[in-house]
Amino acid sequence: MANWTYVSDDAALLENHMIPSYPKGVHILLARVNGTVYALSGRCAHMACPLFTGTLEGYIVTCPCHDWQFDIRTGKFLSAPELGIATYSTKHEDGKWYINIDER
Questions:
Q1: Phi/psi at 83 (nearest 5 deg)?
Q2: Do the Cβ atoms of 27 and 52 come closer than 8 Å?
Q3: Cα–Cα distances in Å, from 8 out to 5, 39, 67, 82?
Q4: What's the CA gap between 46 and 97, in Å, rounded?
Q5: Which of 17, 69, 84, 87 could hold 78 in an S-S bridge, CB 3.0 to 4.6 Å?
Q6: CA angle 3, 89, 28 (to 5 degrees)
Q7: Sheet strands side by side (includes 55-57)
Q8: pLDDT tens, 7-29?
Q9: How far is residue 46's CA from residue 63's CA, in Å, rounded to a whole number?
Q10: What's the CA angle centered on 98, arms 56 and 4, to 5 degrees?
């Protein structure tokens, strides 16, 4: 059963942008691409750098510290797909975004 946790108002997340959120103290990155909102760990798998200060090009977020790149749809590290970061299901309801924070 999904445990939905509020992460952001819809208006706060613009198309082709990223924002951080901290539900239950967990660092989450939210990104909107082609109208879909993706939620993933907000910290790079390499040295835990905050991904929201990186760049978003299409579905790829690039870490600002060492240029590690992740697919926001899967959390996979592009240079070694066996590595990656956690992703979370999202839900939109009444102008607000929620994620299933207990999903891992």
A1: -100, 155
A2: no
A3: 10, 11, 27, 30
A4: 28
A5: 69
A6: 90
A7: 55-57, 60-62, 69-71
A8: 999 999 999 999 999 999 999 99
A9: 9
A10: 135
Q: Which pLDDT belongs to residue 104?
A: 56
- What is the reported pTM? 0.93
> Letter for the amino acid at 74?
T
- What residue type is assigned to position 102 of the chain? D
Give the phi and the psi of residue 51 in degrees, each rounded to 5.
-70, -25
| pLDDT for the residue 41 | 97
Burial 7-27 (b: 16+ CB within 10 A, else e): bbeeeebeeeebbebebeebe
75 vs 96: CA distance, rounded Å:
23
pLDDT band at 76 (very low <50, low <70, confident <90, very high): very high
